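Why does this matter for the project? Reviewers at the last site visit asked to see concrete outputs rather than summary tables. In response, this paragraph embeds two records directly. Each consists of the residue sequence and, immediately after it, the corresponding structure tokens. Nothing has been edited or filtered.
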Amino acid sequence: MTPSPFLRTLGLAILMVAAPVLAIPAGAQQAVGEPVAQQASPAGPAEPQGIAPSATAPAALATPESGAVERDATLPHDLSPRGMFLAADPVVKAVMIGLAFASVVTWTVFVAKLIELWTAGRRLTGGILRLERAADLPGALAACALRRDPAARMMRMAAAEYDRAGPRPLADGVKERVASHLDQIQAVEARRMTRGTGVLATIGSTAPFVGLFGTVWGIMNSFIGISQAQTTNLAVVAPGIAEALLATALGLVAAIPAVVVYNLLVRVIAGYRLHLANAAAATRRLVSLALDSRSGSAQTEG
């Protein structure tokens, strides 16, 4: 029996409709099954294929909004140095304040000692020039009469010891006593110039460790906060770690200038000590010249 044209046309239409469905995997057929069923339903208009049903759309749209709210709630605070300081733990904040104070002390000592050494060195250089230009002990004493620099004190002390020895002094004894006074003056002046440099050495050696203590304390608190929040989100972890690392940075900022300034002052003080030694040597030469002159006069009279 020959099929009618109607049946042939109906079968061809069925094959054309079924071919795309058969080519789609089973999982995809399940995904598109619901829209097809809804399209066949007369309850409402059909929804485009590939879009989730309208009943679940609010839930899908609510997920990004809730995530945005969560992200806004966990956004990091101000990560500027001032913001990190204000949000830091009290212990870390105390460490930062101490390191900042140490940095201020470093620069204060540096400026004060630089001015003191420059002034003292200039006065001492002038005193050495006066001693070297003097022809004898009385002339040097007259040139240093109104001066207060170390060279003038050395000259007055040596002249007093020379006068105390009498008209027939023993040269070796006078030189020994004069040398003792000169050494004492040098020691006092060197001690006065080194005053304050010990603070720089202490800051330079301890500031990095103090900053490291603040960092360890801050990171420990950050780990405690991570365990309590039960999250490893960078927005939660980063602020606490940044605050902790700021303590180490301040420690280095306080320590590095302290070490550099200390070494610079040590070199300047070494030069000042050399000038003191030159002044003492000039004073010894004048005393020796005066002793030789008195000894020659005594031999002539004898």
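We now turn to the second protein, recorded in exactly the same manner.
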Amino acid sequence: MPEKTITVLLVEDDAEVRRRFETTINQDPMMKVVGFASTKHEAQQLIETLDFEVMVIDLGLPDGSGIDLIRLANRLHPSSDIMVITVYGDEQHVVSSIEAGATGYILKEADSEDITGQIRLLRGGGSPVSPSVARSVLRALQNHPTGNGIVPDAEPSPLSARETEILHLLAKGMSFNEIGEILTISPHTVTAHIKKIYRKLQVHSRGEAVYEASQMGLLHN
């Protein structure tokens, strides 16, 4: 059975960067750019009308923040992945993007050269994240371990021991296949556990699950 082409929506206001990304993605025989936008308004229209599996988005758009678009895309396309490629690596932008539904976050120039590899990792269940971005997330969790001052273990965890183990590996950015290898279970079993985690935490993406779990104090064991 032939591999399915990965469809990509590009949201980037820098024309040179957008052309470079578009050319690189379309040169891959298993990927295709199905739309591109340079403003928040244009992107909103495409998100509402196009079908796509990956949205690659910059946060600094001329008419508004890309975070609102992440939230919209996550709501209208819950099975799609959203990868932020931006110059903003500070804690506020990173955490806000993950909370909105981003499943990958890499910085321009330093980490965006292999964009097709990052997209493949994303669709394979991984979370491409720049090292400095990962540090921002860790700092956020350390500074705000529960987000509301509640003692982390004040409430019993809704997750089983195995689900908690998988959640910790997800938080480290590991793919479903990598998690299966570490725990010596099949990727299908990993997927089944992750669906249970999403249902119990009432979330729809990997980023949301990690964020919600951190708010509940489930990632501090």
